[in-house]
């Protein structure tokens, strides 16, 4: 075989350096784009999960808050009722104290009945005048209706029964005030 | 080679415009939604914490009335606690009365002997500090009985209206 050149012929490859450059360039680009896409998909899922968890937590908080609100309203109701009852007891105590202060020393009570809108007293008085001036007068200033009856006692004094009532209308006004 | 280059470039462009950019948009929208949800959640949490603090404060300030409404009336304990104010103290059987403002009301008739009205005032003070919410009600009777005063009155015991079987529980206790 006749040789025309001293150089050995090089074997030709389809992967030329130009092609390698293009493939590596596009390969790196596609890899980066794919990674970005995967990152975005992963983050999207993470956001959705986080948001769902937050919505659940929010609903739980809303439910809890509504429950606490109900409990607060109930405690406030309990507090108001307790205060009302305690105040009534104190008013009652003052009323009884006032009643006993009202009775003069010369008159002796044998029975006292405190009603919601009235007072019934039974006792003994030396004279009608003592009763009228010292007990009935202050009672009249408190009660709108006052009825008294007397009957003689064996020692010359007088037994009395005094029934005193407030008008329902006035009582209503008093309670409003 | 040019054909391959053009093909790859075309693929990249298609991938970017049809998949990557819409996904990016979606990502931004979801991030914004999450941010909104976080803000909303934080507002709920702040409100919840405020309400909770308010609740605990109210609970600690009204501990006595809360436990008193929850307590089941015990006539024996009541008599033990208050016998110091009376020479004799008798309680009748407990009756379920009409509910008041949603609370169960139990009525107890009381009959007692006191040596002076002051004992009764002290009793009323003690009732306000007792383990139950008790209101002393009209009519109240005072009658001279020798050196003593016989008194009779009705007490109303207020309790939480949890169940209708409470009356039975009370009756059993008696």
Strand and helix map with partners:
The complex is a heterodimer of chains A (177) and B (174).
Chain A lengths: L16 H86 L5 E7 L3 E8 L2 H15 L2 E8 L5 E8 L2 H9 L1
Antiparallel strand pairs in A: 1-2, 2-4, 3-4
Chain B lengths: L1 H60 L1 H8 L4 H8 L5 E4 L3 E2 L7 E11 L2 H12 L4 E13 L2 E12 L6 H8 L1
Antiparallel strand pairs in B: 1-3, 2-3, 3-5, 4-5
Walk me through the structure:
- The complex is a heterodimer of chains A (177) and B (174).
- By secondary structure, chain A is an alpha+beta fold.
- Chain A folds into 2 domains: 85 residues; 74 residues.
- Chain A is 62% helix and 18% strand.
- In chain A, strands 1-2-4-3 form a 4-stranded antiparallel β-sheet, with helices on one face.
- In chain A, a hairpin with a 3-residue loop joins β1 and β2.
- The radius of gyration of chain A is 51 Å and the shape is rod-shaped.
- In chain A, 10% of the residues are buried.
- Chain B folds into 2 domains: 61 residues; 106 residues, Alpha-Beta Plaits (2-Layer Sandwich), CATH 3.30.70.
- Chain B is 55% helix and 24% strand.
- The longest helix of chain B is centred in the first third of the chain and has 60 residues.
- The radius of gyration of chain B is 36 Å and the shape is rod-shaped.
- The interface between A and B is large, with 56 and 63 residues.
How many domains make up the coordinates of chain B? 2
Strand content bin of chain A: 15-25%
- CATH domain topology of the largest domain in chain B: Alpha-Beta Plaits
Poorly predicted segments of chain A: 171-177
Largest interface, C-beta closer than 8 angstroms, per-chain residues = A-B, 56 and 63 residues
Based on helices, strands and strand pairing, what is the structural class of chain B? alpha+beta
The SS-based structural class of chain A is alpha+beta
What is the count of β-strands of chain B?
A: 5
CATH class of the largest domain in chain B: Alpha Beta
Largest sheet of chain A: 4 strands, antiparallel
């Amino acid at each position: 075989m006749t040789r025309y050149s001293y150089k050995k012929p090089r074997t030709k490859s389809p992967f030329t350096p130009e092609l390698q450059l293009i493939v590596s360039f596009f390969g790196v680009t596609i890899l980066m784009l794919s990674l970005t896409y995967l990152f975005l998909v992963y983050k999207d899922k993470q956001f959705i999960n986080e948001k769902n968890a937050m919505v659940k937590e929010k609903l739980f908080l809303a439910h809890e808050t509504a429950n606490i609100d109900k409990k607060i309203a109930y405690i406030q109701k309990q507090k108001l009722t307790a205060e009302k009852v305690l105040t009534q007891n104190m008013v009652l105590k003052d009323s009884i104290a006032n009643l006993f202060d009202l009775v003069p020393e010369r008159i002796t009570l044998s029975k006292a009945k405190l009603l919601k809108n009235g007072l019934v007293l039974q006792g003994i008085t030396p004279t009608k005048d003592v009763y009228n001036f010292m007990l009935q007068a202050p009672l009249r200033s408190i009660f709108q209706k006052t009825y008294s009856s007397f009957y003689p006692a064996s020692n010359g004094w007088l037994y009395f029964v005094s029934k005193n009532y407030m008008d329902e209308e006035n009582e209503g006004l008093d309670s409003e005030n | 080679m040019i054909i391959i280059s053009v093909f790859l470039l075309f693929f990249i462009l298609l991938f970017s415009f049809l998949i990557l950019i819409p996904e990016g948009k979606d990502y931004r929208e979801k991030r914004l939604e999450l941010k909104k949800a976080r803000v909303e959640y934080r507002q709920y949490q702040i409100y919840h914490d405020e309400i909770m603090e308010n609740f605990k404060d109210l609970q600690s300030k009204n501990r006595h009335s809360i436990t008193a409404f929850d307590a089941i009336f015990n006539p024996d304990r009541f008599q033990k606690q208050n016998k110091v104010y009376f020479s004799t103290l008798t309680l009748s059987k407990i009756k379920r009365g009409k509910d008041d403002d949603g609370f169960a009301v139990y009525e107890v008739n009381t009959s007692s002997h006191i040596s002076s009205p002051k004992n009764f005032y002290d009793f009323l003070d003690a009732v306000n500090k007792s383990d139950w919410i008790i209101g002393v009600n009209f009519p109240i009777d005072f009658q001279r009985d020798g050196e003593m005063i016989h008194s009779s009155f009705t007490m109303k015991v207020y309790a939480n209206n949890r169940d209708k079987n409470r009356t039975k529980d009370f009756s059993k206790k008696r």
